[in-house]
Amino acid sequence: NAGVTQTPKFRILKIGQSMTLQCTQDMNHNYMYWYRQDPGMGLKLIYYSVGAGITDKGEVPNGYNVSRSTTEDFPLRLELAAPSQTSVYFCASSSGGQGDTGELFFGEGSRLTVL
Amino acid sequence: AQSVTQPDIHITVSEGASLELRCNYSYGATPYLFWYVQSPGQGLQLLLKYFSGDTLVQGIKGFEAEFKRSQSSFNLRKPSVHWSDAAEYFCAVGDTGGFKTIFGAGTRLFVKA
Protein backbone atom coordinates (compact mmCIF):
# COMPACT_ATOMS: atom_id res chain seq x y z
CA ASN A 1 0.00 0.00 0.00
CA ALA A 2 2.52 2.62 -1.20
CA GLY A 3 0.32 5.72 -1.67
CA VAL A 4 2.51 8.64 -2.78
CA THR A 5 6.20 7.91 -3.28
CA GLN A 6 8.88 10.57 -3.70
CA THR A 7 12.52 10.22 -4.62
CA PRO A 8 15.15 11.16 -3.63
CA LYS A 9 14.63 11.82 0.07
CA PHE A 10 17.74 13.99 0.32
CA ARG A 11 19.83 15.83 -2.24
CA ILE A 12 22.54 18.47 -2.22
CA LEU A 13 22.95 20.58 -5.34
CA LYS A 14 25.42 23.21 -6.39
CA ILE A 15 24.15 26.55 -7.63
CA GLY A 16 23.20 26.30 -11.30
CA GLN A 17 22.76 22.53 -11.36
CA SER A 18 19.55 20.90 -12.48
CA MET A 19 17.62 17.99 -11.07
CA THR A 20 14.27 16.27 -11.10
CA LEU A 21 12.26 15.22 -8.07
CA GLN A 22 10.21 12.16 -8.85
CA CYS A 23 6.69 11.52 -7.61
CA THR A 24 4.38 8.61 -8.28
CA GLN A 25 1.04 7.60 -6.80
CA ASP A 26 -0.79 4.29 -6.99
CA MET A 27 -4.25 5.43 -5.89
CA ASN A 28 -5.48 6.35 -9.38
CA HIS A 29 -5.94 9.95 -8.25
CA ASN A 30 -6.64 12.56 -10.87
CA TYR A 31 -5.12 15.52 -9.06
CA MET A 32 -1.48 15.88 -8.09
CA TYR A 33 0.47 18.70 -6.44
CA TRP A 34 3.93 19.91 -5.53
CA TYR A 35 4.43 21.95 -2.38
CA ARG A 36 7.45 23.43 -0.73
CA GLN A 37 7.71 23.78 3.03
CA ASP A 38 9.90 26.40 4.63
CA PRO A 39 10.21 26.91 8.41
CA GLY A 40 7.37 28.99 9.80
CA MET A 41 5.78 29.39 6.38
CA GLY A 42 3.52 26.38 6.10
CA LEU A 43 3.13 24.80 2.67
CA LYS A 44 3.17 26.77 -0.54
CA LEU A 45 1.78 25.31 -3.76
CA ILE A 46 4.29 25.25 -6.62
CA TYR A 47 2.40 23.47 -9.41
CA TYR A 48 -0.58 21.20 -9.72
CA SER A 49 -2.19 18.94 -12.26
CA VAL A 50 -5.82 17.91 -12.66
CA GLY A 51 -5.05 15.10 -15.07
CA ALA A 52 -2.57 13.70 -17.55
CA GLY A 53 -1.39 16.40 -19.93
CA ILE A 54 -2.76 19.26 -17.79
CA THR A 55 -0.64 21.35 -15.43
CA ASP A 56 -1.01 24.77 -13.89
CA LYS A 57 0.95 27.17 -11.72
CA GLY A 58 0.42 27.50 -8.03
CA GLU A 59 1.53 30.26 -5.71
CA VAL A 60 5.33 29.94 -6.13
CA PRO A 61 6.12 28.44 -9.58
CA ASN A 62 9.22 30.45 -10.52
CA GLY A 63 12.30 28.32 -11.07
CA TYR A 64 10.36 25.08 -11.46
CA ASN A 65 8.75 23.06 -14.22
CA VAL A 66 6.45 20.04 -14.20
CA SER A 67 4.97 17.54 -16.58
CA ARG A 68 2.19 14.98 -16.29
CA SER A 69 2.42 12.36 -19.00
CA THR A 70 0.64 9.66 -17.00
CA THR A 71 -1.91 9.58 -14.21
CA GLU A 72 0.65 8.08 -11.85
CA ASP A 73 3.68 10.34 -12.29
CA PHE A 74 4.25 14.03 -11.65
CA PRO A 75 7.95 14.98 -11.71
CA LEU A 76 9.19 18.40 -10.61
CA ARG A 77 12.22 19.84 -12.38
CA LEU A 78 14.59 22.49 -11.12
CA GLU A 79 16.52 23.91 -14.07
CA LEU A 80 19.06 26.28 -12.49
CA ALA A 81 19.24 25.62 -8.77
CA ALA A 82 19.48 28.65 -6.50
CA PRO A 83 19.97 28.86 -2.71
CA SER A 84 16.39 30.15 -2.42
CA GLN A 85 15.22 26.72 -3.54
CA THR A 86 16.65 25.08 -0.43
CA SER A 87 13.52 23.60 1.09
CA VAL A 88 11.56 20.45 1.78
CA TYR A 89 9.39 19.44 -1.15
CA PHE A 90 6.19 17.45 -0.84
CA CYS A 91 4.25 15.74 -3.54
CA ALA A 92 0.57 15.13 -2.85
CA SER A 93 -2.48 13.77 -4.59
CA SER A 94 -6.25 13.84 -4.26
CA SER A 95 -9.00 11.94 -5.99
CA GLY A 96 -10.35 14.88 -7.92
CA GLY A 97 -13.39 13.01 -9.11
CA GLN A 98 -16.95 12.88 -7.95
CA GLY A 99 -16.90 12.47 -4.22
CA ASP A 100 -13.63 14.32 -3.86
CA THR A 101 -13.47 15.45 -0.25
CA GLY A 102 -10.50 17.74 -0.71
CA GLU A 103 -8.30 15.44 1.37
CA LEU A 104 -4.68 15.49 0.30
CA PHE A 105 -2.42 12.44 0.47
CA PHE A 106 1.24 13.32 0.94
CA GLY A 107 4.56 11.69 0.20
CA GLU A 108 7.29 11.68 2.83
CA GLY A 109 9.11 14.65 1.37
CA SER A 110 12.39 15.43 -0.36
CA ARG A 111 14.90 17.64 1.43
CA LEU A 112 16.89 19.72 -1.04
CA THR A 113 19.89 21.86 -0.18
CA VAL A 114 21.46 24.22 -2.71
CA LEU A 115 24.98 25.40 -1.92
CA ALA B 1 -8.12 37.45 0.74
CA GLN B 2 -8.24 33.85 1.80
CA SER B 3 -5.96 33.00 4.69
CA VAL B 4 -5.40 30.71 7.63
CA THR B 5 -3.88 31.89 10.90
CA GLN B 6 -2.41 29.67 13.56
CA PRO B 7 -1.49 32.12 16.31
CA ASP B 8 0.80 29.79 18.22
CA ILE B 9 4.13 28.90 16.63
CA HIS B 10 4.81 26.31 19.32
CA ILE B 11 3.08 24.95 22.40
CA THR B 12 4.41 22.80 25.24
CA VAL B 13 2.07 20.64 27.31
CA SER B 14 2.63 17.97 29.91
CA GLU B 15 1.78 14.39 29.09
CA GLY B 16 -1.78 13.71 30.19
CA ALA B 17 -2.81 17.36 30.03
CA SER B 18 -5.45 18.68 27.67
CA LEU B 19 -4.59 20.42 24.42
CA GLU B 20 -6.17 23.09 22.27
CA LEU B 21 -4.58 24.38 19.07
CA ARG B 22 -6.09 27.49 17.59
CA CYS B 23 -6.97 28.14 13.98
CA ASN B 24 -8.73 31.13 12.41
CA TYR B 25 -9.53 31.46 8.74
CA SER B 26 -10.72 33.93 6.17
CA TYR B 27 -12.55 32.40 3.21
CA GLY B 28 -15.13 33.76 0.82
CA ALA B 29 -17.49 30.80 0.73
CA THR B 30 -18.37 28.11 3.23
CA PRO B 31 -15.05 26.35 3.55
CA TYR B 32 -13.92 22.81 3.86
CA LEU B 33 -11.70 22.72 6.96
CA PHE B 34 -8.88 20.34 7.73
CA TRP B 35 -6.29 19.53 10.36
CA TYR B 36 -3.16 17.68 9.31
CA VAL B 37 -0.33 16.33 11.47
CA GLN B 38 3.31 16.04 10.46
CA SER B 39 5.60 13.80 12.49
CA PRO B 40 9.33 14.49 12.21
CA GLY B 41 10.70 13.48 8.82
CA GLN B 42 7.28 12.50 7.54
CA GLY B 43 4.66 13.85 5.22
CA LEU B 44 1.37 15.28 6.38
CA GLN B 45 -1.46 13.02 7.49
CA LEU B 46 -5.11 14.03 7.76
CA LEU B 47 -6.41 14.14 11.35
CA LEU B 48 -9.95 15.29 10.62
CA LYS B 49 -12.08 17.40 8.30
CA TYR B 50 -15.29 19.37 8.35
CA PHE B 51 -17.61 19.97 5.41
CA SER B 52 -21.06 20.46 6.87
CA GLY B 53 -23.41 19.19 9.53
CA ASP B 54 -22.39 18.68 13.13
CA THR B 55 -19.88 21.36 14.01
CA LEU B 56 -17.96 19.06 16.36
CA VAL B 57 -15.98 16.54 14.35
CA GLN B 58 -14.02 13.56 15.56
CA GLY B 59 -10.75 12.47 14.04
CA ILE B 60 -8.07 9.90 14.42
CA LYS B 61 -5.82 9.49 17.46
CA GLY B 62 -8.48 10.90 19.82
CA PHE B 63 -8.52 14.41 18.33
CA GLU B 64 -11.60 16.53 17.78
CA ALA B 65 -12.25 19.97 16.36
CA GLU B 66 -15.12 22.42 16.56
CA PHE B 67 -16.21 24.71 13.75
CA LYS B 68 -17.46 28.08 14.95
CA ARG B 69 -18.74 30.11 12.04
CA SER B 70 -19.29 33.27 14.08
CA GLN B 71 -15.64 33.26 15.14
CA SER B 72 -14.22 31.89 11.87
CA SER B 73 -12.41 29.33 13.95
CA PHE B 74 -11.69 25.63 13.79
CA ASN B 75 -9.75 24.76 16.94
CA LEU B 76 -8.25 21.33 17.50
CA ARG B 77 -8.55 19.64 20.89
CA LYS B 78 -7.48 16.52 22.69
CA PRO B 79 -8.45 15.70 26.29
CA SER B 80 -5.22 13.93 27.25
CA VAL B 81 -1.98 14.29 25.32
CA HIS B 82 0.44 11.41 24.82
CA TRP B 83 4.16 11.76 24.19
CA SER B 84 3.60 10.38 20.68
CA ASP B 85 1.46 13.43 19.85
CA ALA B 86 4.58 15.58 19.64
CA ALA B 87 4.52 16.82 16.03
CA GLU B 88 3.64 19.81 13.90
CA TYR B 89 -0.02 20.50 13.26
CA PHE B 90 -1.39 22.35 10.27
CA CYS B 91 -4.81 23.85 9.85
CA ALA B 92 -6.01 24.17 6.28
CA VAL B 93 -9.03 25.60 4.49
CA GLY B 94 -10.21 24.82 1.00
CA ASP B 95 -12.73 23.15 -1.20
CA THR B 96 -12.98 20.06 -3.34
CA GLY B 97 -9.97 20.18 -5.60
CA GLY B 98 -6.92 20.45 -3.42
CA PHE B 99 -5.38 23.25 -5.50
CA LYS B 100 -7.68 25.54 -3.59
CA THR B 101 -6.31 24.46 -0.19
CA ILE B 102 -4.53 27.06 1.90
CA PHE B 103 -2.36 26.01 4.82
CA GLY B 104 -1.57 27.80 8.04
CA ALA B 105 2.04 28.20 9.14
CA GLY B 106 1.74 25.33 11.60
CA THR B 107 1.97 24.86 15.36
CA ARG B 108 4.70 22.67 16.75
CA LEU B 109 3.62 20.68 19.80
CA PHE B 110 6.13 19.64 22.42
CA VAL B 111 5.12 17.13 25.10
CA LYS B 112 7.00 17.01 28.38
CA ALA B 113 7.03 14.07 30.73
In a few lines, what is going on in this structure?
Chain A is mainly beta. Chain A has strands at residues 4-7, 10-13, 19-25, 31-37, 43-51, 54-57, 64-66, 76-78, 87-94, 105-106, 110-114.
* Basic shape of chain B: globular
Give helix % range of chain A. under 10%
Multimeric status of the protein: heterodimer
- How much of the sequence of chain A is in beta strands? over 45%
Q: How many angstroms separate the termini of chain B?
A: 41 Å
Most extensive chain contact? A-B, 25 and 26 residues
Number of helices of chain B: 0
Structure commentary:
The complex is a heterodimer of chains A (115) and B (113). Chain A has 115 residues and is mainly beta. Chain A is built from no helices and eleven strands. In chain A, the strands form two sheets. In chain A, strands 2, 4, 5, 6, 9, 10 and 11 form a seven-stranded mixed β-sheet that branches. The radius of gyration of chain A is 13 Å and the shape is globular. Chain B is mostly beta strands. Chain B is built from no helices and twelve strands. The mean pLDDT of chain B is 92. The A-B interface holds A 4, 31, 33, 40-43, 45, 48, 50, 56, 58, 90, 92, 94, 96, 100-104, 106-109 and B 4, 9, 32, 34, 36, 41-46, 49, 51, 90, 94-101, 103-106.
Write the layout of secondary structure elements.
The complex is a heterodimer of chains A (115) and B (113).
Chain A lengths: L3 E4 L2 E4 L5 E7 L5 E7 L5 E9 L2 E4 L6 E3 L9 E3 L8 E8 L10 E2 L3 E5 L1
Chain B lengths: L2 E3 L4 E5 L4 E3 L2 E3 L5 E7 L5 E7 L5 E3 L5 E5 L4 E6 L8 E8 L7 E2 L3 E6 L1
Task: Identify the notable features of this structure and list them briefly.
heterodimer, A: 115 residues, mainly beta, 7-stranded mixed β-sheet, 11 strands, 0% helix, B: 113 residues, 6-stranded mixed β-sheet, 4-stranded antiparallel β-sheet, 51% strand
